[in-house]
Amino acid sequence: MPQKHPETQLTHDIFNDYSSARKNWSRQAVEDSEFRSGKQWKKEQVNALRARAQEPLVVNVIHPSVEQAKAMLTSNAPKFQSTGRDTSDTSVGRIFSDLMSWVWDISVGNAELKRCIDDYYVKGMGVMMAYIKPDADFGRGEVMVKSIDPLSVYFDPDAEDPFCRDSSNIVVAKRMTEKELVEIYPEFEDAIRESQETSHISDFEQNRFGLFDEDVVPQSRKDSLLQAEDERELEVFERYTKVKTPYYKIFDQYENRELILNDPQYAEYREEKAVIVTTGDDQQIFTDKSNVSNFMQISQTVGTTYHLEQDPMSGQPVPVAGEETLTSIPNSTTVLDFIDKGVLIDSDKIMVTKVMNTNIKQCISVGDVYLYSIVLPIEDYPIVPFMNGHNRNPYPTSDVRLVRGLQEYINKIRSLIVAHASSSTNVKLLIPRGSMNKKQLEEEWAKAGTAVIEFDPELGQPIVAGPVPLPNELYKNEADAKQDIERILGIYTFMQGDVGAAPQTFKGTIAMDEFGQRRIKSKRDDIESSLNQLARAVVGLIQFVYQTEKTIRLIQPNNKPKEVKVNQNIYDDVSGELISKINDITVGKYDVIVVSGSTLPSNRWARFEYYMELYKSGLIDQTEVLKQTDVADMEGVLERAGQMQKLMGQVQQQQQQIKQLKGDLQTAQRESVSDRKRVEVKEFEKKLAKAEAKAEMATKLYTERAADELSKLREEVKKATSKKVGLD
Question: What's the domain range around 622?
Answer without folding.
Answer: 602-631
